[in-house]
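Please check this one:

***
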Amino acid sequence: MSASCVCHVSLGSTVAAGNAINVPMMTPPRFLYNRSGEWSDGTVPILATTAAGFTYIAFLMVLALCHIALGQQLNLHWLHKIGVTAALLTTIIGVISINQTWGHEWDVIPISLQATGPFLHIGALAAVTALSWIVARQVVHAEKTKFQVVVMLLYFSVLLGLYLVPLYINSPCIMDPNTLKPRPNVIGHQGAPMLAPENTLWSFQRALQMNATGLEADVAISVDGVPFLMHDHTLQRTTDVKKIFPDRQMDDASFFNWTDLQQLNAGQWFLKDDPFWTVNTLSPREKDLIANQSVCSLEQLLKLASYHNSTVVFRLRRPPLEHPRYHSWINDTLQAVQRSGVPQSLVMWTPDEHRAQVRQLAPALIQTSVDKLSPESLEKSGISRLLLRYNQASTQEIRNFTHSNISLTLYTVNEPWLYSVLWCSEVSSVSSEAPQILKKVPYPIWLMRLDEYYLMWISADIISFAVVIGIFIFQKYRMSGMYSYSPEQIMLSAAVRRSSRDINIMKEKLIFSGQPQ
């Protein structure tokens, strides 16, 4: 991404250093904008169509099960055949499209199973237990013993598998509530970008209002050496550069000087595009504040953090090779930290190169790595913090880091269920674009003791097994009752009932005819 060089680091002279680690942390709307240039998600209609197709197929399956349960023959209309084929095709297209756009998010599925596994197991067990009614009916009606054996083996294999699935369910929220660690700190990633334009002073103030204990930003260096906050390489998305500097709208943001940057408005785009559909929830005063936001410097952010005693972590992006500050970017950044007056113990330093020199010049900075290393390697390098994506550390790894006194921050965590799972995993802090949502999570969504989970698991299995056996016995008894009568016996019984009825009618006529008039 950028070239590297080796040099001496000094606050009083021009400095050169290695690459800055720039790990993009994109929200979905921003990611889509950068790919298409529009604030829209082309996968939404595909997802909607796929969901409709799944619903349609599920409806047909339920209808088919009802027919089987009633002993009726299945006869799928040709229109339904076309519908099923179309649903399957849209599903395949949907999966391919989603994989191309959100392929990096598939890892959320196994993590979500940690939050929902115990409850999905109960639901699947209930569904398969209910299916025993149809299976038992098919078995007792079958004339071939081989078919009966195959169906029974398949069904009870699935059932046994479900009975044993909890052995492989490993949720961190199955734990003793008394051992639950304190609530993880929430760091406002780019402030509170759902409530205010990202990387602006008002966005960070909103994050602090939502009880964020830290602030995270993306930092670039202007052509005159001023570190400023900007995620993208250009100013097109989050400023009015098209209006103020139309000929420079596609230029790298770092090739603007600070005077030019201060002329840009960094808030009106948020009110116009409404990327998170939250503008209608803002008060008139908030809209006025947003409309007047400008590009924020790193020094302004550090002063705000110092005033609120909040931690700051920033991603430092090295300017291009032809940039006049290509060799002094580390020095420019350290000078901004020094001028702000922020306590160094509140600043998390992420670039990995030349840590030794930076540590000599600013020894109190919190040395932070964005590369996943072992606790031993981190300790050897004098690194006390680790910043990783939420899917880069397992529950056991999170606990290993915690027990090794390595403070781990995971990004980007916006959902309460994910925050709850990470809380149970003993993570120390998370970086979030939705501190206003996580503020409403004072406790994990669910916690369950291990003995309570065992009781639920064993009870569900016993009840399921008893119901299944009862259904099979009932279906067998029901069929044996039907087989005990031959067609001739049924006809004879009907004739006897009819003769008895005729005799009763004749008796009534004789009785009434003998009565005096």
User: Anything to note?
Assistant: Residues 108-141 form the longest helix (34 residues). The radius of gyration is 34 Å. Confidence is low (pLDDT under 50) at residues 1-28.
